[in-house]
Design brief:
Two copies of one chain form a homodimer. Chain A is mostly helical. Chain A has six helices and two strands, in the order H-H-H-E-E-H-H-H. Chains A, B: Keywords: Cell membrane, Membrane, Transmembrane, Transmembrane helix.
Chain lengths: 208, 208
Amino acid sequence: MEATKSSDETTIHIPESTSTRGKAAATVPAMVVSTKATQAGGWKRGVAIFDFILRLCAIAAALAATATMGTTDQTLPFFTQFFQFQASYDDLPAFQFFVIANAVASGYLVLSLPFSIVGIVRPHLTGVRLLLIIFDTVMVALITAAAAAAASIVYLAHSGNTNANWNPICQQFGDFCQSVSGAVVASFIAAAIFIFLVMLSAVALKRH
Amino acid sequence: MEATKSSDETTIHIPESTSTRGKAAATVPAMVVSTKATQAGGWKRGVAIFDFILRLCAIAAALAATATMGTTDQTLPFFTQFFQFQASYDDLPAFQFFVIANAVASGYLVLSLPFSIVGIVRPHLTGVRLLLIIFDTVMVALITAAAAAAASIVYLAHSGNTNANWNPICQQFGDFCQSVSGAVVASFIAAAIFIFLVMLSAVALKRH
């Protein structure tokens, strides 16, 4: 039942006149097209299922990055007369951007799941795939920017910079730095999955 | 001449038997396909030319970013007994990465120009377009990461961070900060052009 459905959707416009004027001639290409469409449908359905699984992995990575960064804070066990030493993600604008961007990417991924399912059910609808590739590309840029900005700050926190006279703060806030680094790695994994999703969609679009 | 050439390249496999058995039936769809291919060819050629122009703009932006960041350094007019105050891009690893990534992107863009020209001459070769979209996606990630990492450092240099006790260095190195900010902006422009190139290629792939 699925096979006939998918072969209906291939839009090779052979006019009505062909089937009426040359019956024998018309049936041969129609059968060839049908077999090809079924094969291509199976191939594209595999790509669509892989796309769906990758999106689930990306949701896990992006949510892990958001949650790790968003919940991490460390209060040092000693304090002076004036203030207590505390490190949290909202002390640094790059980390705030990181949390927002990863949350946006997670939300987008959840919203894109229905479209990915449509891609599995109807592998020949290229409009859905085009929509996904366009938004995925934007998300590649967003999540890579967030991860890179946070990574450069994490690097600075780890090793400091003598030229600019910026001291490494990870010596004091070791646990904070560790969980932040983990969040950055998770975000880079999500970015890599997004890049792969774009490539996969491009290959699927090419062979429609 | 071009019209016949392009119609040759549309791969709708109608077997030989069709034209021998039903002559009248075969000529009608062939003509329809030919007209459609010519229209699509013109449309795709326009996209390919636009792609080429955008690549030239991206080369300008990426080269400007590389050159600005690579050549910028500032030596303060006063010095102590021990050292002279000097700021250069290779003091900060994020800026080094920025220069390397932008140089790589410029090099890739120059190398991609011949492929873009092939896309103009033969608009129906989807393999070239697929190759370009895959590498363009990688470059989106690379150049966005470079720009974002540098931007977070530039932001820190401008406004500092009281929580981490990092002082703004732009108060001393005003000219350095200004040219570095310019380089970051140029790099973000190049990244935006790359995102647009990927979308353009995706649309062109969809309608092949």
